[in-house]
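Re: that chain you flagged

S.,

Sorry for the slow reply, it's been a week of failed gels. I finally had a moment to sit down with the sequence you sent. For the record, here it is as I used it:
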Amino acid sequence: MVELDYASDIRKYTPNVDAAPIEGLIKHLGIALKGRDSALVACSEKSERDRIRDRFLKKKLGLAHADADLDKAITDICRKMAKDQDKQRVTFYYLLAEKYGKLGAFAQ
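Prediction finished late last night. Pasting the structure tokens below so you have them in one place:
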């Protein structure tokens, strides 16, 4: 599998991209990035959005916001990335971490 240029993908949505959190996210996601389906976010699936809320935003980032607020943040990123049929998980998670000021959790 060809290594994706995640920085270029992220730059489509935010101008200031930091390489250290990208590397940290790649390590965090690990084997999930090996499979095409698991490397992409399916915004149309509620179970996918719930998993991102519960496992990434709450568990990994330690956010204690109301579910409705976290769901809105996920939906906002889905809308932001709507033009991309293939929503890269690294990009999606980077944008969420950036929104909540948590990119440092992935910097090495």
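What I noticed first: The beta strands are 40-41, 87-88.

Talk soon,
D.
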